[in-house]
Amino acid sequence: MRKMMQSKGFTLIELMIVVAIIGILAAIAIPNYLNYQMKAKTSEAKSNIGAIRTSEEAYVAEEDEFIVCQASPRTAADLDENKEAWTDNGGFDTIGFSPSGDVYYTYGVADGSGVTVPAGSGDLPGANATADRNDGIVIIASGDLDGDGTTYTFSSNNTNSDIQDAGTPY
Predict the structure, then answer these.
(1) What is the 8-class DSSP label of residue 84?
(2) φ/ψ (deg, to 5) at 120
(3) What is the DSSP letter of 53?
(4) pTM, rounded to two decimals
(5) pLDDT tens for residues 30-43?
(6) Which contacts of 51-55 are long-range, i.e. CB under 8 A and separated by 24 or more positions?
(7) What Cα–Cα distance (Å) separates residue 56 from each residue in 24, 38, 63, 156, 168?
């Protein structure tokens, strides 16, 4: 009876096993958490591209022309992993688009006549210029979500609601 009363506590082996199990769980959970966090950040771009497309379609229904919008809130050279307060550098106020809150991406709208969207494109010419209704537009979102210098770009146009990504791993 006396021996049973004296064993109070954990042995060093038991504590080491618990620490090893916690380490293994953390090694699995932390990368998955970071991946889910990046996926959540990319959903901002897809949601705002859809909202920009809707705003452009409403504008073209009234005015019979698209508006080309300058990269906002920052240029491609200024991209980093931090959120930025929204400032319209030209065109977005005209179509009535303004995201709610700060954004990770920079957004722009280019004339759709023969436009190819390079990865990292952010500086679009012709703020407040108009685009021919027949040529359409290309909506671009560019961002560097993890601060590694790699810019991820999403794009879409007015004729197809699909959103193309230029090499985003998330």
Answers:
(1) B
(2) 85, 10
(3) H
(4) 0.74
(5) 999 988 888 888 88
(6) 51/97, 51/99, 52/92, 52/95, 52/97, 52/107, 52/109, 52/139, 53/139, 53/156, 53/158, 53/161, 55/92, 55/95, 55/96, 55/97
(7) 50, 28, 10, 12, 25
- Residue 116 is predicted with a pLDDT of 46
Joined tokens for residue 63: 């005015």
User: pLDDT tens digits, residue range 108-119?
Assistant: 998 876 554 443
d(CA 88, CA 70): 8
- What six digits make up the tokens of 31? 């990368």
* CB atoms near residue 5 (< 10 Å): 7
Residue pair 66/133 in contact by the 8 Å Cβ criterion: yes
In this prediction, residue 18 carries a pLDDT of 96
Strand arrangement, sheet containing 69-72: 69-72, 106-111, 137-143, 152-157, 164-165
Instruction: Tell me the C-alpha distance between 41 and 79, whole Å.
Output: 14
Rounded distance, CA 49 to CA 45, Å?
A: 6
CA atoms of 54 and 47, how far apart (whole Å) = 11
Q: Token pair for residue 70?
A: 């300058």
Please name the residue that has the structure tokens 């500086």: 123
Work out the number of other CB atoms within 10 angstroms of the CB of residue 138: 23
